Amino acid sequence: MSRPRFPPSGGVPASRLQLPPGPWTTVFDALVAHFPQVDASTWRNRIARGRVLDAQGDPVTLQTPYRVGAEIGYYREVADEPVIDATERLLHVDGDLVVADKPHGLPVAPTGVFVTQTLLTRLVATLGNPDLVPLHRIDRGTAGLVLFSADPASRARFQALFRESRIAKTYEALAPPLPDLAFPLTRRSRIERGEPFFRMREVDGAPNSETGIDVLARGADLWRYALSPVSGRKHQLRVHMAALGAPILHDPWYPTLQDDADETRPPLQLLARTLAFDDPLNGRPRVFESSFRLSEASA
Predict the structure, then answer these.
(1) 27-34 vs 40-48: helix crossing angle, rounded to 10
(2) Residue in 173, 168, 136 with CA at minimum distance from that of residue 254
(3) Which of 22, 162, 190, 294 sits at a 20 to 30 Å CA gap from 45?
(4) How far apart are CA 115 and CA 170, in angstroms?
């Protein structure tokens, strides 16, 4: 059975929720309980404007009965959403795959205070394709390549590239020198959620992350590093570089959370530079390279 389809609204893709077990009578009651940060009046308003849909794509009402496991779609809304002036670049578009070059500061998909100002929302509006789905994520602060599935029929075959580690990813970073280490080297560690909730940390235990690290250029104050993640843990590259004693330039979260982690800070000097893989549909090798460049002038 195919997944229910919730069309974008104003270019904004719908968020999906599978209703969890609970004592509620209506979908409205379940939403209020599941999202305590959104007050009941906001949900009433969204429902009244048809911004909450059932699995058939029909508007939910205040009386729509709750059913555990039912999937609904809803459209996130943020008052006074910040405007991001940086512009993405399209590197490749076909019926199955879209490759975009994301600038620093632009989220990949709706999150937090960003709904319309995201790479996914912009691409859906630009290409007119509501089926676009990011195949992977990079941090908002990271620039560079992001792959999108353009067709649900071929999506699983592209997703398998990441799940089975059949895609080579290379990042570049500017960070302080590490003259006492021999390169290339491999960093393996166990990364788990830290404090506050949005930060990660290395802990004792069996490694669940691995990054290959080499040096591309050596400057007096900064080195340019090539980072090749084997695994894909959240903030993995940032955590590994900070743990080695060379936090990525302008990283406001690692190794310590800084007080000036705001929008006026220069961009994190981390770039998703290349992606290489054999096309799962025809077997042909594909290599994509970001058109963005890191600059030591940001130091």
Answers:
(1) 140
(2) 173
(3) 22
(4) 28
* Cβ atoms of 69 and 87 closer than 8 Å: no
Q: What fold is seen in the domain 15-74?
A: 3.10.290
String of b and e for 145-182 (b: at least 16 CB within 10 Å)? bbbbbbeeeebeebeebeeeeebebbbbbbbbebeeee
- Give the C-alpha separation, 287 to 155, whole Å: 19
Angle at alpha carbon of residue 30, lines to 33 and 66, rounded to 5°: 165
CB 121 within 8 A of CB 133: no
Q: Does domain 170-270 have CATH number 3.40.190.10?
A: no
- Maximum distance among all Cα pairs of the chain, rounded to whole angstroms: 67
β-strand partners of 144: 102, 272
Cis peptide bond N-terminal to 184, omega within 30: yes
Does the fold of domain 170-270 match that of domain 15-74? no
Cα separation, 164 vs 183, whole angstroms: 27
Give the model confidence (pLDDT) of 116-149 as tens digits: 789 998 998 899 898 899 999 999 999 999 999 9
Question: Does position 1 have pLDDT exceeding 60, yes or no?
Answer: no
| pTM (predicted TM-score) | 0.80
